[in-house]
Structure formats: structure tokens, C-alpha cells
Amino acid sequence: MASTAQLAARPTVPRLPDGTYAVPDPHRPDVTTLWRVAYGELHPWPVRQRWAPPTAEG
User: Fold this and answer.
1) Of 6, 27, 43, 47, whose CB count within 10 A is highest?
2) In this structure, which long-range contacts are made by residues 20-28, counting pairs with CB atoms below 8 Å and at least 24 apart in sequence?
3) If we measure between CA atoms, which residue out of 12, 6, 53, 46 comes closest to residue 29?
4) Structure confidence by residue, pLDDT tens digits, 16-46
């Protein structure tokens, strides 16, 4: 577990504003993935879609 001093020294990560974002897939540059930020949490978009790099089988 981190000490109080270690926690205080950690940089803060800026919070993304709520909204939708398009991000190029780092494994397939021709594919753009869509994400939604709601209340500071990241979600795949559209709902029930799973964006992930292709597997060895796929």
C-alpha cells in the first residue's frame, strides 16, 4: 500500500469532459473506435459493443 507521501507525490490526471470521443485503434490505423465519457468514467460506444485489439484467433 502506498504511503501518504507517495500518494501526495502522484501526478493528477486531468478529467475528460463528458461527451463522445473518436480514437484511432493503435493496432489497426484504418479503424476508429468510439468512446463515451459519463461522470468521469470511460465507456465503449455504442452500448454493448466491445472495442478491443483483434485476438490471435480473430
Assistant:
1) 43
2) 20/45, 25/51, 25/53, 26/53, 27/53, 27/54, 28/53, 28/54
3) 53
4) 899 988 888 788 778 788 888 998 888 887 7
- Alpha helix locations (H) across the chain? 4-9
Q: Strand order of the sheet with strand 19-24?
A: 19-24, 32-38, 41-44
What values do phi and psi take at 20, rounded to 5?
A: -110, 150
Q: Reply yes or no: is the peptide bond before residue 26 cis, omega within 30 of 0.
A: no
- Neighbouring C-alpha atoms within 13 Å toward the C-beta of 26: 1
